[in-house]
Amino acid sequence: MKSFKIIQAIIAFFMVCGASAPIAFAQAPYPNRQLQLIVPFPAGGPTDIVARLYAQQLSKLAGQPVIVENVSGAAGIIGTQNDARAEPNG
Fold first, then answer.
1. Residue 10 falls within a domain, yes or no?
2. Contacts by 77-86, CB closer than 8 A, 24 or more apart
3. What are 71-82's pLDDT values in tens digits?
4. pTM for this structure?
5. Cβ neighbourhood burial of 58 (10 Å; 0-12, 13-18, 19+)
6. Contact (Cβ atoms closer than 8 angstroms) between residue 60 and residue 28
7. 63: containing domain
8. How far apart are CA 5 and CA 13, in angstroms?
9. Which of these, 84, 85, 36, lies nearest to 62 by C-alpha position?
10. Is residue 64 in some structural domain?
11. I need a surface site. Which of 27, 39, 48, 55 has the fewest CB within 10 A?
12. Does residue 9 lie in a domain region?
């Protein structure tokens, strides 16, 4: 008898989840603007090359341009601080 109530609760849960699914599709596609990738090392190095390859593939997947910004100095600390203070964009 107790297992029957558990099964009913599980079914009710999935019915509620299924009913709320169309609401999620009504939102705007994400991301809806360009993305910024901050690289805390100078341009032309191995980190920059990998970041640009990553940005190229991410741009194809996201359907938005991905801007790679190199902010070097203080062994990567300045770029990392800029990243921590940046406005979230995806």
1. no
2. 77/40, 78/40, 79/38, 79/39, 79/40, 79/41, 80/40, 82/38, 82/40, 83/38, 83/40, 86/36, 86/38
3. 877 777 777 777
4. 0.58
5. middle
6. no
7. 28-85
8. 12
9. 36
10. yes
11. 27
12. no
Tokens 């990738």 map to which residue? 37
Q: What is the pLDDT of residues 39-88, one digit of tens each?
A: 888 888 888 888 889 889 888 888 888 888 888 777 777 777 777 787 77
Q: Hey, what are 30's tokens?
A: 């994400």
Q: How many domains, in total, are found in the chain?
A: 1
Residue-wise DSSP of 44-74: TSHHHHHHHHHHHHHHHHHSS-EEEEE---G
Q: Which residue has the higher pLDDT, 9 or 66?
A: 66
Token couple for 73: 């100095």
Specify the higher pLDDT residue, 26 or 78: 78
- Of residues 71 and 2, which shows the higher confidence score? 71
Residue with tokens 């360009």: 34
